Amino acid sequence: MLPASIQKLVDQLDKLPGIGPKTAERLAFWLLKKPQGDLEEFALSLTKAKADLIICSACQNFSQSDPCPICTDPQRDRSTLCVVAETHDLQTIERLREYQGLYHVLGGTINHLEGIGPENLNLQTLLKKVQPGKINEIILALNPDMEGESTSIYLQKLLQPLKVKITKLARGLPSGSDIEYADEVTLSSALKNRREL
User: Fold this and answer.
1) For residues 7 and 46, what is the distance between their CA atoms, to the nearest angstrom?
2) Domains, the chain, ranges and CATH?
């Protein structure tokens, strides 16, 4: 049995995505070993981030200004729109420094088991952006899992009447991997998305 204050901390950490009860307990004890000043700085950083950040009305990204720096950058290609599930997906693509268009953050993916339907996603702001003649291509950059695929299918049906080119990220073998260890879905996708040399 843990003291009530530690158990409460473990319970809060257990709510984080990808953290189970054992990891939450390990993190709780790790945090408790830190000097008080470090913990106060950690708590202040979390509180300040929540207080300082707003949601960009144009792309739904976290930002300190509205619209965000990406949406106001005159160098960005305004005819291409990359749709991602979460802000961290946007940040991952930005780190590549290859994509120069605009973004739209859905705020999740369709997941009926968790009670998340299309009505829970940022779809109205997406539809307002996609006007004929302004957007030439929409890139669906969603995870290749069940939720990402079902969301992609839903978006494709929703956006098709708007007569805009809809593309998806290519799927296939990661660089440096061995074919013999690839799962069937990945290998099948790699074969379908092959390109001419």
Assistant:
1) 21
2) 4-52 (1.10.8.420), 71-168 (3.40.1360.10)
